[in-house]
Every structure is written in structure tokens, then in C-alpha cells.
Amino acid sequence: MIFFWAFVVGGLICVIGQIMFDVFKLSPAHTLTILVVSGAILDGFGLYEPLIDFAGAGATVPITSFGNSLVHGAMQEAEKHGIIGVVTGMFEVTSSGISSAIIFGVIGALIFKPKG
């Protein structure tokens, strides 16, 4: 049943993004920003973790999870280290994903040639 709910919740997040494109005519940058900020706000109110517990990968794979990770890491480190923890916590939690995206992007750019 967890696969079903992961599909439904992840699909709903994607549908929301698609509606932003089609109905509201938002650019990809605006849509991305709104989804990341939405995940951050939901985590700030303590609502994103229960969603992850319920939907699993359906809530952790979409871009809203990035906002959740930023706020979650910042809040955890702020409890330990104060105001400095806010900044370091965001980078500590998300650094592996960002680093791997950069590394694989560079490898892809070196291996493949753009068509033009």
C-alpha cells in the first residue's frame, strides 16, 4: 500500500506544478521556487515529516523535499549551535545532493557533446 500512496502523493505534487505551468502560466523558475518554499513552510509548521512518514518516496523525491531539507537541517543545527547553526545546518543536510548534482553535471558535460 505504501507504493500506492507514494504514487498518489508524488503525483499530486507534480500535478500542482503542472497546473502552475498551464493555468497560471508561471515560468519554470517561479514554479520551482514556489514548490521549494512550500516544502520549507510545511516543514516549518511540522507538517512535512508526517507527509514523509505517510507517503515515503512520494514526498521525498519531488522538489518540495529540498525545501523541507533546508528548513529541517537549519532548525536542527540552530538548536545545537544557535544562529550560526541556521546557516551551517542548511548546507550540512543538502550538501551531498548538491555536490553529486554538480559532479555528475560536469561528468556529463565532459562525455557528451551538445547538438546545435
UniProtKB/TrEMBL annotation:
Keywords: Membrane, Transmembrane, Transmembrane helix. The chain crosses the membrane at residues 6-24, 83-112. The keyword Membrane applies. Pfam families: SpoVAC_SpoVAEB. InterPro entries: Spore_V_AE (IPR014204), SpoVA (IPR005562). The keyword Transmembrane helix applies. This is Stage V sporulation protein AE. It comes from Oceanobacillus longus. The gene is spoVAE.
